[in-house]
Write a structure and sequence with these properties.
This protein has 385 residues and is of the alpha/beta class. 34% of the residues lie in helices and 27% in strands. The protein folds into 2 domains: 260 residues, Aminopeptidase (3-Layer(aba) Sandwich); 112 residues, Alpha-Beta Plaits. The longest helix is centred in the last third of the chain and has 22 residues. The protein is elongated. The two termini are 23 Å apart.
């Protein structure tokens, strides 16, 4: 169950692409240099169509097979994260405050490797749409590309994507049919009290005490308002207030994240947050504003497409788990899966630092495996004859 020989021949070239991309990270929708690099490679490969400037800096390339047929969409995300890199590698980020800490440089490379092979061989009946998407980390670039009509414009019937997985052996795959990754929402709570001298708390309306009460009460949403067998995470991740040891501040700020799979659970969390914030504010004599931001929906794999993708993965890897279970992370590929059947899979990145860690780096050994998976998926989904 090997990597495709022709793609193995590209390994050094793919490593070069990946390390160039790693050294030149871009954020959100501003992936113009990344897109230009990708477009140049695709033109060299001889793709049949190249459509640029989608969702600001995204692009879609079309490769026609040897005979007519349906279109399969393959997606790679392009954006980096707003953080500093600590790897010290020769190909480390050359721009401060930006880093490919989630492996999107590797995702691009795997799809480019598949594109080169498919453009050479064209051993499939139909078309492949190569989707290079900005703003996965922040901004929901997948939703923007869907809203701009790529699925209809290019008549894409099914969509597939890969993400690397630190802690999983290089080249291994895992996925799950049905709900796979959680919906992600965020909340902000702005508390306004009445500040004063730390020695005279009776003259204040203390926002710190209100913030503590709100945060403690939020912890009861999962433990006391929710069925334990249904996945839910509510995490407070920021509290900001105060400036000196003898000053009771006038304001406080709380921020957090909510992860759900069930819309009814999501609605319960929203209602309980509203009740908790209003009740605690009244109890402590302050005012508080809750701002709840609904983010990416749950990533739900089509069961038939997931079984098919797992079978394809077994043609290039001996280590494939087809029913891994749910994860509480989130992914904006969910917007594409809401509109088309398809599947999202993880590919092993070995014993690397974790995703979003300043010491993370994509393992170049995974690139030929991922590229072979994409290529075999197209050939098996769209067989000639």
């Amino acid at each position: 169950m090997p990597v495709i020989n022709r793609i193995a021949d590209y390994a050094d070239e793919m490593t070069g692409w990946r390390r160039h991309l790693h050294a030149h990270p871009e954020l959100n929708f501003d992936c113009h240099q990344t897109a230009a690099f990708v477009a140049a490679r695709l033109r060299d490969f001889g793709v049949d169509e190249l459509h640029e400037g989608i969702a600001t800096s995204g692009l879609v390339a079309i490769i026609n097979g040897s005979v007519a047929g349906p279109t399969i969409g393959l997606r790679a995300d392009m954006d980096a994260l707003p953080m500093d890199e600590t790897t010290g590698l020769d190909h480390a980020a050359t721009v401060a405050g930006r880093m490919h800490a989630c492996g999107h440089d590797g995702h691009i490379t795997m799809l480019l490797g598949a594109a080169k092979y498919l453009a050479e061989t064209r051993n499939f009946a139909g078309r492949v749409a190569l989707i290079f998407q900005p703003a996965e980390e922040l901004g929901g670039g997948a939703q923007v590309m869907v809203n701009e009509g790529i699925l209809d414009q290019f008549d894409i019937a099914r969509v597939f994507a890969l993400h690397n997985a630190p802690g999983t052996p290089v080249g291994a795959f895992y996925t799950t049919p049905g709900p796979f990754m959680a919906a992600v929402d965020s909340f902000d709570i702005h508390i306004t009290g009445r500040g004063g001298h730390g020695a005279m708390p009776h003259e204040t309306a203390d926002p710190i005490m209100a913030a503590v009460g709100i945060v403690q009460a939020i912890q009861t949403i999962v433990s006391r308002n929710h069925t334990a067998t249904n996945d839910l995470v509510v995490s407070v991740t920021q509290i900001h207030t105060g400036s000196a040891d003898n000053v009771i501040p006038g304001t406080a700020y709380i921020n957090g994240t909510v992860r759900t799979f069930d819309p009814a659970v999501q609605a319960m969390v929203m209602a309980r947050l509203d009740q908790i914030v209003a009740g605690q504010a009244a109890a402590y004599g302050v005012t508080a504003e809750l701002i709840y931001d609904v983010g990416y929906p749950a990533t739900v794999n089509d069961p038939e497409s997931t079984r098919f993708a797992a079978d394809v993965a077994r043609t290039v890897s001996a280590d494939v788990v087809a029913d891994h279970g749910r994860q509480m992370g989130a992914e904006d590929f969910a917007y594409m899966l809401e509109k088309r059947p398809g599947a999202y899979l993880f590919i092993g990145n070995g014993d690397s630092a974790g995703l979003h860690h300043p010491a993370y780096d994509f393992d170049d050994g995974a690139s030929p495996v991922g590229a072979s998976f994409f290529a075999r998926l197209v050939e098996r989904a769209l067989p000639v004859g």
